[in-house]
Amino acid sequence: MHECRILFFGDIGGRPGRRFVLSQLPLLRERYKPDFIFANAENATHGFGLNAATAQKLHDAGIDGLTLGNHTWDQKEFWNEIDTLPYVCRPANYPKAPGKMYLVFEHQGEKLAVINLLGRTGIRTALDCPFQTATKLIEALENDGIRNVIVDFHAETTAEKYALGWFLSKKEGVCAVLGTHTHVPTADTRLLNNRTAFVSDIGMCGPHDSVIGCEIDPVIERFVEGKPNRLEVAKGAAVLNAVFIRLDLEQHCALSIERIQRIEESDV
Fold first, then answer.
1. Closest CA to 196 of 157, 168, 231
2. Phi and psi dihedrals of 10, rounded to 5?
3. What is the DSSP string of 97-163?
4. Residue 10 contacts residue 206 (beta carbons within 8 Å)
5. pLDDT value for 2
6. Fewer CB within 10 Å, N- or C-terminus of the chain?
7. CB 69 within 8 A of CB 181
């Protein structure tokens, strides 16, 4: 059996999320001994988007691959920077955009691909169908001899995430479908069809006392008064959410998935 151990962080939100993830990486490496570490980084720069400098810091710290989402282009310079970052992939179902549509890694003679997709329910941007995009990419990867795939599905609703999870679990080689985007971890880690590791949402790595990473009062004012407040990343202690998955690259399937949550001491 060619076992591969994967640590995958949910949406990293701004400086608090980056700080806590990087501080916990040595401890998590010791505990889980991952072969690869991945993270969704679409909120890693100031809470909205990503830039090359932040991406490089995360990669230099030991995160092998970064995925994105609906905030991919919030840092305007990133449209021109993304092609310089071989360890970053953007949602593959953007109709036309720079950047990689997937990442490929090798372990014990087997290849592993990471694909990023955006859901269409509640996401206000022009997108190709994630189901059809995934099908085409997986077929192309298989033709290139890559028969192990992890999908980061950055989507709004649990229904769309479950639908894609079940849909892709029928395809040989889809080892994991991991939900991101809502910043709230779900307690539904499981194996679909006894082969595909799944969770509706990994959850965020960001400020613990917040509204999905943002300062609390401006968000309340938006809901109560309709006030068009500028949202800022909250300060203080952070929470870390991730999943640890074990894959059998020889049988092209997942063996297990475990949810991880750590909360920073509140005196930060």
1. 168
2. -75, -175
3. -SSBSEEEEEETTEEEEEEEEE--TT--S----HHHHHHHHHHHHHHTT---EEEEEE-S-HHHHHH
4. no
5. 86
6. N
7. yes
* CA–CA gap between residue 203 and residue 241 (Å, rounded): 5
Tally: H helices and E strands in the chain: 6, 12
CB 40 within 8 Å of CB 69? yes
Rounded Cα distance between 249 and 108, Å, is 9
Cα separation, 85 vs 239, whole angstroms: 27
Domain locations in the chain as residue ranges: 3-263
DSSP assignment, residue 70? Answer: T
Q: Which residue has the tokens 């990473």?
A: 213
Say which CATH class 3-263 falls into: alpha beta
Tell me how far apart the alpha carbons of residues 5 and 108 are, in angstroms, rounded to a whole number: 12
- What are the helix (H) ranges across the chain? 14-32, 52-60, 78-81, 130-143, 158-169, 216-225
- The pLDDT tens digits for 157-199 are 999 999 999 999 999 899 999 999 999 999 999 999 999 999 9
Q: What are the catalytic residues?
A: 71
Answer whether 4's CB lies under 8 Å from 249's CB.
yes
DSSP alpha helix (H) spans, 144-267: 158-169, 216-225
